[in-house]
């Protein structure tokens, strides 16, 4: 799941999304349990990353109307939600790489729509030209309140039915 692009659904997830959990065969049940453990591991990694950022005294990265030029993509599939933004300026971290860090997107693209999402920076590219100055393109994988990037997939595996 880590190696699969954000806009693709890996085969292991496709297998279990076809049925209700009550209809799972043993192999599908094993895949569902593995995916839940994988999501738990990613949540713990994100919590440790956020704790490290706080311990070294770095501030949380915030993208707002002050530095967002445009929201290029805002979509979700059966696994995760992704937001891609173009930003003014260059972003870097003193003690760690920018990719893999937790960031907050807080903006109001229009009157009826408000974005307030935490996400993991998946990709970051920076460029400089004389017309626009220094810009960065970031792709963020949105996390839920448990810092789980695969919350949509986990919600679809509902064992209560």
What key attributes describe this structure?
alpha+beta, six-stranded mixed beta sheet, 35% strand
Explained architecture:
This protein is α+β, with helices and mostly antiparallel strands and 161 residues long. It is 27% helix and 35% strand. It contains 3 helices and 6 strands; from the N terminus they run H-H-E-E-E-E-E-E-H. It has helices at residues 11-17, 26-55, 151-156; strands spanning 61-63, 68-76, 81-88, 102-110, 113-129, 133-143. The protein has a 6-stranded mixed sheet. The model has no long low-confidence stretch (mean pLDDT 84).
Offer a concise description of the structure:
With 161 residues, the protein is an alpha+beta fold.
Helix and strand arrangement:
Layout: H1 11-17, H2 26-55, E1 61-63, E2 68-76, E3 81-88, E4 102-110, E5 113-129, E6 133-143, H3 151-156
Parallel strand pairs: 1-4
Antiparallel strand pairs: 2-3, 3-6, 4-5, 5-6
Helix pairs in contact: 1-2
- What is the tally of helical segments? 3
Shape: globular
Helix content: 25-40%
The tally of beta strands, per DSSP, is: 6
Largest sheet: 6 strands, mixed
Percentage of β-strand residues: 35-45%
